[in-house]
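FIELD: query
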Amino acid sequence: MSYNCWLECVRGCGRRYSVFDVVYRCEDCGGLLDVEHDLEALKNRSAASWMQLFDERVRSNEVPYGSGVWGKKEWVMPLVDNDNVVSTYEGHTNCFWARRLGDEIGVPDLWVKMSGNSHTGSFKDLGLTVLVSAVKQMVADGKPIRAMACASTGDTSAALAAYAAAAGLPAVVLLPRGKVSTAQLIQPIANGALVLALDTDFDGCMRIVREITKDPTIYLANSMNSLRMEGQKTVAIEIAQQFDWEVPDWIVIPVGNLGNVSALGKGLLMMKELGLIKRLPRIACAQAQRANPLYLSYQTGFDEYKPVQAEKTLASAIQIGDPVSYERAVKVLRALDGVVEQATEDELANAAARADRTGLYACPHTGVALAALFKLIDQGQIKRTDRVIVISTAHGLKFTDFKVGYHDKKLEAVESRYANPPIELPAEYSAVSEAIDRVFGK
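FIELD: result
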């Protein structure tokens, strides 16, 4: 059976576009666009049949369905020909049972969705596989697209560059100079993208990329482009699938530009509508205190929203003061009875380090989510009996300087309570033996 999808204004004005149109906002009211699917056609297949199909495709060798994203192709981007799908076998990231950490904080049913265990080391791969595949389809159909472009704090640029290289398409990335980790900076360079390091922050890069992509031959790859969310929403589907199609009580997610939580909500609401799940979890969005416009709006019941000047934060990927997907995120939070919490630099760094001591290797953004989790437990919102899943958005190895600075006690505004620096000793048996005895006793 054939399935259809299209772009539609999120403000409900009714304006629609093809998913292959080069358009990012409604031309009538200025609202963002979302990909909408023909749910009536999807309902012609039963929930049990969809679950069986998705389960059968997990890690299969049938191209492109072995991908965690493209295994749900009918729900994601059915109009792209299989020959134009650009995939690195993304998705299928594990849920780590954080048993020791959960016991320590009083929530033993604690899991961490390791979205950073992916091709470029972050969840952004899930969205860029869809966007780049759609662009490849557009080019094949004769659309004159010269390049794809994004503003980035590191992870989006890495994913865009990798998938563009795999597709044989040009990519342009705008980065805030000196505000991206070395590991993130080298990724788009290595994959051959045109890397432009600008003397501004992410919001400044975003303003410029919006201007650049007014040229219809330069295609916008930021999460303002709703195609990204179709891939990212599969995180929600994958979580349910990994727990035999049961959803947790809470999902805690770090947020910056707010595309990820919007996508998560899309996936959950779509599963509920099509009968694959019977209830919805609650969502907790976590922001760095130094870049917290969503948190401040939440304090007003979302009655007020004001962009902020984001300050330098260790959670550099979410150092965003004017998030593009604010409207989308608020709709999701209201639908899922969501909450918003924030974390200071000290709280996020020590939360990541505490998690590391129990077997994780948390990036600073996951540290923000963990710090928010600890607060919600202390407030009594998250209960001991709840199943909680924290979304880890990137691999900790992308943030080696953050880890080194923490254990060297050199991070500004951070008291490193779990610092574990190496002990330098002479190469002598007695010195080594004495050090072991001092730490562990005889």
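FIELD: remark
The CA atoms of residues 290 and 311 lie 5 Å apart.
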